[in-house]
Amino acid sequence: MKKVYPGISSGGKRFRGGVRPPESKDTSTFAISRLNSPEKVYIHLLGSAGAPSKAVVSAGERVLKGQVIAEPVGRISSFIHSPISGTVQDIKNWPHVSGKRLPAIIIANDFKDEEKPRKNLKNVQQISPSELVEIVRKSGIVGCGGAAFPTDIKLTSSSGKKIETLIINGCECEPFLTADERIIFEKPGDIIEGAKLAARALAAKNIIIALEENKGRSAEKLLRQQDSRIRCVFLPTRYPQGGEKQLIFAVTGRIVPAGGLPADAGCVVLNVQTACALYDALFNGKVLYERVVTLGGLFRKPGNLVIASGTRLTDIIEFRGGIPDEVDKVIMGGPMMGVAVDNLDVPASKATSGILLMKAADAPDYECIRCLRCASVCPMNLVPRQSYFLYMKGRAYEDAVHCMECGACGYSCPSGIPLVQYLKWSKEKLKNVSSAAGR
């Protein structure tokens, strides 16, 4: 019999499609701990969605923990801070999760852990919404759900559109990932206060915290902290429940128009870790240079750890016992939307929600049986198999521009075709064609 939690409403509207993969969330019982500080960090200038930031330090310069080392360029970009104290060793191209080599600031750790003095805001509740947003911007806060979109832009009344509802996303629907669940369990008060700050910046009347039904234990902690302004909602455990468009529909019944933004539906969505980062910035003066990451799969020492941005995968894995013999795939993120990396020099970033050590499945001999199961589970109402067939002809599937890359299609495909890879290829090809036409 399902347990009832007074103060949490259940149900919500069911979005189209979706799948129910095995949860594999054993790490949800592991308390958050801290990873050892590495000898060097490798901080990419592309630290968020949008344009790469501009370095404001040079080789040989000593920096403090929390010091600005790069500033935003253009509207969609972010401040970047050093996660350690030490000396800037170099600024050069370094392996990135995208598979490319991109500019990064390399800092050698002096292990003194000297931090730049934090600003003490004595009257947080009295500062104006514009001042609040500026602090968020200068704190380098980006979305911690994986997209790493600069949070200050989301909080700037979303281009003048009226925001009625702020949704705090605690669904964490990806298998294996449990960092958000531990944040909810261990820091419920920080989430609540961060949500209130965000709602004040947006002038939003409603605050809704959305959780999947498998997070009842954490929800009980959250309920002890909530007040009358905030409503908690339990949603069915179904992937991709945490996608912005799916979540907005499930919680409010509103539909984000094709090509539109959540603000077009009167909503803004923030991840629970992002809400905590807001709290830390406004109440503790702490900038965002580290985050909680799930280490799962076949890690010898799995868990949820606070990891400094710029820490290489090889350092993370070695600190946690090394790679077991049976591992032949390393994934950054979750198994559905994450990226398999072939270079362990790639560093973790503000966007890194998880690191998984996995056993790769044998590559199948693909043969589409035209069952259309991929179309039935697609939350964006696409026919993913078309991307595969058109790829074979060197053509792009035009509807792929609407793909959210959730991976539900490939997961459901009985032939094991990695359909999301063909959808990504179509999106990239269409993007290149559009760019060429605009020249």
- Backbone CA Rg: 21 Å
Give the neighbour order of strands across the main sheet.
2-15-14-18-16-17
Count of helices? Answer: 13
The general outline is globular
CATH superfamily of the domain at 8-31 and 120-284: NADH-ubiquinone oxidoreductase 51kDa subunit
Can you put this structure into words, describing what you see?
It is a single chain. By secondary structure, the protein is of the alpha/beta class. Among the domains are: 8-31 and 120-284, 3-Layer(aba) Sandwich (Rossmann fold), CATH 3.40.50; 373-437, no CATH class. Helices cover 26% and strands 20% of the residues. It has 13 helices and 18 strands. The chain has helices spanning 129-138, 151-154, 157-160, 179-186, 188-202, 216-223, 244-252, 272-284, 313-319, 373-377, 385-392, 408-412, 419-437; strands at residues 8-10, 33-34, 40-44, 54-55, 62-63, 68-71, 80-81, 86-95, 101-109, 165-170, 206-212, 230-235, 267-271, 290-297, 303-308, 329-332, 339-341, 354-358. The strands form four sheets. A six-stranded mixed beta sheet has the order 2-15-14-18-16-17, with helices on one face. Strand 8 and strand 9 (101-109) form a beta hairpin. Helix 1 crosses helix 5, helix 4 runs parallel beside helix 6 (216-223) and helix 11 (385-392) packs across helix 13. The longest helix is centred in the last third of the chain and has 19 residues, at 419-437. The radius of gyration is 21 Å and the shape is globular. The mean pLDDT is 90.
